[in-house]
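**User:**
Make up any protein.

**Assistant:**
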Amino acid sequence: MNSLGTAPHTARQPTMSLSQPVNPESSWQRDLAAAIRNPKALLAALGLSEQEIPEISAEATAEFPLLVPLSFLNRMEAGNPHDPLLRQVLPVEAEQTTVPGFTVDAVGDGAARQSAGLLQKYHGRVLMIAAGSCAIHCRYCFRRSYPYSDEPKRLRDWEPALHQVAEDETIREVILSGGDPLMLPSPGLAALVECIDAIDHVDRIRLHTRLPIVLPSRVDTELLQLLQSVRAQVVVVVHANHANEIQDDCRDALQQLVLSGFPVLNQAVLLKDINDTVEALERLSNVLINIGVLPYYLHQLDRVAGTAHFEVSAETARSLVAELRDRLPGYAIPRLVQEIPGRGSKTSLETL
């Protein structure tokens, strides 16, 4: 270990870029390259016309481009303009409406930034913006306007953040987020994880990722071997909002993570007309539990500009979770929470 408390690998390759060129032999990178990026192509693939969804917005698409992997597309119901997966990714006119209380940085990321790429909101853990891109563009994204261009791109750029983590022995957990950390090719991800893993007081490395859900081919042998080689406990937190997402290759990818020995948790966001019924939430929890994934959080929508049409009232949210308690065992019920900037933890909405 060097003076930064990081692995010698950092010193040997200080200019290494974490994002390598596309590897033609990589199945997941081929799948990502084939993703749909045009609303008309998305509708055509589903047998839908623009007349059936007149609220599609070119302005919203220009501001936050559409991106949908084919695996996720294949889980949508053809001919259904109200499909809950389609509605998570479709750019619509409502995104252009200014609504009081909805801001660019609704969760206080800017105030929590400690150094390049490093955020700390809660005691004992920090979050690293490991990548500035995702494999899908969810329209309710709370970081849709995050200044990713300001964050590290090379391993050398991470040295101040790694030094800060190494100097603070109260930090026991490092969360890799973004964007999505699994957008890093495995060699780049391995280099960053190796540096974190070399800091003795870091007990856990947590991955916040949607790729196992939307781009399941990312969960390959190379990734599993990488994660299994880590000294610290690896925790994988995925993000699915509807049971229809947990099908076929997605279900297989999640089971691979579970069977490889990693705790796998799911975070969902409560979204109007997508999963805001007790039946939808119950089915999601049952599908997750049945493959060994623990329902972790049900998030109240982060009030980010452009997302107000997804919001469900806190009263409705509490009522839904109360109904879940009558239908599911305790371990299958996610905690209803909201992120409020400046607080020392997520805020439970069930007790308010």
User: Anything to note?
Assistant: The chain has two domains: 9-24+99-348, 27-96.
